[in-house]
Amino acid sequence: MSLFNVYPLFDITPVKAVDVFVYDENNTKYLDLYGGHAVISIGHSHPKYVAAISDQVAKLGFYSNSIQNPLQVQLADKLEQLSGCTDYELFLCNSGAEANENALKLASFHNGKKKVVAFKNGFHGRTSAAVAATDNTKIIAPINAQQEVEILELGDLEAVEKALAKNDVCAVIIECIQGVGGLDESTAAFYEGVDVLCKKYNTCFIADEVQSGFGRTGDFFAFQKYNVTPDIISIAKGMGNGFPIGGILIHPNIKASFGLLGTTFGGNHLACVASSTVLEVIEEEHLMQNAKDISAYFIEKAKGISAVKNIKGRGLMLGLEFDFPISELRKKLIFEHKIFTGSAKNPNLLRILPPLTIKKEHVDLLFEALKSELQG
Asked: How many angstroms separate the CA atoms of 324 and 321, rounded?
């Protein structure tokens, strides 16, 4: 049986990885500055992570959510402590799209409305309502398009109020730093204004932290730079360091009831151990501070490259914008310099999403490669 051909693939076959490096079948070493779409938060094959998962799978890998699972409670407690999101409740699922799907569904249950407001260049997943709220018509099938979604310009607070004043919007879903869209970020006045409007019009504010959460921006969540209180926070990617897990944090103004949400695999024993270990390592190794420190170093180095027209993002969710498409540059970085980087909807943007364990010496390798390719 052949694979359904939906991914353009680079001719590289990784077989092992350690911290910020990936090795292919020929034992060629690559510097990973993309982390598999911001998934690798504490480095590949972290010894504490490997030991924790190995120990758990030897005891109990999975059982259903119809029984007690203290590992879910431990994860929720650790997440509350490290994120500072006190009094929120946790629902666990399996991915970022599923997290946003549950967030939108819960918002609609909560206020009885069905329309969604999202933003230009936003990306929230590839399933049902999540993909309908994504600004990419190429991945929205007719069955998804029946969802009622209004996509507005990021930063247009007047348009947000005009939409919410109709009193049919269940949720505003927003990435405080856009990921796939190209690392665009609006102002504090905009995000805080949206929060005020959501509360005024009984609309749920959903902070999509699938890519930006778990310390990637230097704060635990990207929204924490602003004075906002999301009703629902969606999480995934860096949450499991490669083990599939997602979830939503739910403000106490939204009440639970039996059967409201459900999942078979969400919050399984292995997933909980994986995510709890990620949180422990982030705390023990001060990786949020490292994200801030390395970010500052990266930005200073980037200023020395004349071809870089704009430096975008925060922490270790960064982008280098050029005045030309970066597809060929990205290939040269991979095949000639052995460095993984990422692309975005913005064709001129090189995305940098490394493990939070990255060091200055690794940043230097990137900029040496860029200088050699760009001559300046």
From this structure: 9
